[in-house]
Amino acid sequence: SPPLLQVNDLKKHFPVKSGLFGRKSEFVYAVDGVSFEIARGETLSLVGESGCGKSTVGRAILRLFDITAGQVILDGQRIDDAHPGTMRQMRRRVQVVFQDPFSSLNPRMRVRDILAEPIRNFGLAKSAEDLEVRVTSLMDTVRLPREALNRRPHEFSGGQRQRIGIARALAAEPELIVCDEAVSALDVSVKAQIVNLLQDLQSEFGLALLFISHDLAIVEHMTHRVAVMYLGKIVEIAPRREIFAAPRHPYTRALLSAVPLPEPGAQRNPIILKGDVPSPINPPKGCRFHTRCPLVFDRCRVEEPVLRATGTEQWVACHLEDGAVATSG
Ligand code: SF4
Ligand code: MG
């Protein structure tokens, strides 16, 4: 059977006006040729600095806008150009948990109605009793007291609100949840609780997660694989073990060097990158990372590296991996 999700050469270019009096029309190359798969029950983390395009990938999968090019395929069916009837079911199967549950939960609605809404929208309840059973069991699932069903979002802490956000996502009985910086705004201890909850739910329901995060320390605890993005492209994709123990792309190494080691007092050698991330309106020619790469050489400035397999499951886009086998992408 096909993988749960396939993303093929996805591109999203946003038009912008720039120049004197905004007379120049240009494009932000937010996502510029991204391919990956997610298996059923798998967590793939999409990491990188803000502006690298990781949220745009998540939004493209959620069909929050039309994509510029490429394909998004859920369970063998294209969802980037699906007709409305198919789209409805596709929308049910892919849900989202955003960073800020406060802004994504309607403050005037009681938790009961917040959870009932997707159940009704997707026609999942067979009766009023069934709806009530579903809503109360969702509270149990995310470890919130049932009496909280009658309260409104502002009466909860940040962590509790995120549990409501997760319950709302689960209400649709999804197979994939896009978590866009879902724990980034929470305190460290609350973060760990929500991550543990997501992991429990994953094994309970066989959920796949696309975990979008800039926080590699959190990712290390919960992911199966990691895709590292830089300026709209994936530069490395590999299982967790390889990414954290043997990162190969110079950008992955720099990102990881800033992640604290678990042993107290232990420290990685920090790799400080020079300069800022260049504008995605005019990304550098050749390797997009060449303006900041500590290992840059002539070829990097003219030729774009493609993702190559360096191990069975590790793929790296860097000319230093030239001996490896290139893909068509
Ligand atoms: Fe650095 Fe060149 Fe590799 Fe790009 S291709 S990451 S510039 S060594
Ligand atoms: Mg973002």
From TrEMBL:
Residues 5-256 form the ABC transporter domain. One of its GO terms (cellular component) is plasma membrane. Pfam families: ABC_tran, oligo_HPY. It is a peripheral membrane protein. GO terms for biological process: peptide transport; transmembrane transport. InterPro entries: AAA+_ATPase, ABC_transp_ATP-bind, ABC_transporter-like_ATP-bd, ABC_transporter-like_CS, Oligopep_ABC_C, P-loop_NTPase. It is found in: Cell inner membrane. Signal peptide: none annotated. PROSITE patterns: ABC_TRANSPORTER_1, ABC_TRANSPORTER_2. SUPFAM superfamilies: P-loop containing nucleoside triphosphate hydrolases. One of its GO terms (molecular function) is ATP hydrolysis activity. Keywords: ATP-binding, Nucleotide-binding, Transport. Involved in beta-(1-->2)glucan export. Transmembrane domains (TMD) form a pore in the inner membrane and the ATP-binding domain (NBD) is responsible for energy generation. NCBIfam families: oligo_HPY (TIGR01727). Belongs to the ABC transporter superfamily. This is Peptide/nickel transport system ATP-binding protein. It comes from Bradyrhizobium shewense.
